[in-house]
Amino acid sequence: MPGSSTIDGALQQLAALAPGLDCLDVACYHRHGRDPCMPLVGLGRPDARWCFLGRDPGEQEVRLQRPFIGPAGQKIRAVMAEVGVSEDELYWMNTVPFKPIGNKPWSMAARRQCRPALLELLAVWKGTEIITFGEAAFKWFGLDRAQRQAVEAFWQRPDKYEARFATSLCISGVERHFMVCPVPHPSGANAAWAARFPGLLRARLRDARAY
């Protein structure tokens, strides 16, 4: 498999980080007979059309060891089915590939700790279109100090869920250019955007095919 050694190395890095993460939900992993030090990454084909970047896995992802399969993930998959997007067209990632206690956002420190290994995983993917789910996923690109101001400014735009954010990342010494397309987090708790989420994701998938 292309990039398999890179993937294995990145997964080992993440596994080594797990015991020191501040809010790892060890009880959830044990409840489902899973190893809390095993990062839950979906990944996919290097030539996948899109990268889906979420915040972190939930309990159902831990239980089933599949990405984006819990209640919020089912809303994403429903739109995929409607638009005709298959799993083979996606490269699945999260900003922290471990479940946090109480599904609370990971600390900035935890996100920074995981980022180098995640960049290695992202390097395996050859695409450019990244759809981010929620604020934490989009602002992952602002962990790089050079990008932080631009990321924050874009997030304040009233049309952020329709506009596209061009950015670049230096990965293993190579500059890669990406087009980041944020959508709201599909959680039912996100009352302000829950009703609009399907239409916004649908538009993102259809628009990306037009480029």
TrEMBL record:
One of its GO terms (biological process) is DNA repair. SUPFAM superfamilies: Uracil-DNA glycosylase-like (SSF52141). Pfam families: UDG. Gene3D superfamilies: Uracil-DNA glycosylase-like domain. Keywords: 4Fe-4S, DNA damage, DNA repair, Hydrolase, Iron, Iron-sulfur, Metal-binding. Residues 41-209 form the Uracil-DNA glycosylase-like domain. One of its GO terms (molecular function) is metal ion binding. It comes from the Bacteria. This is Uracil-DNA glycosylase, family 4. It comes from Oryzisolibacter propanilivorax.
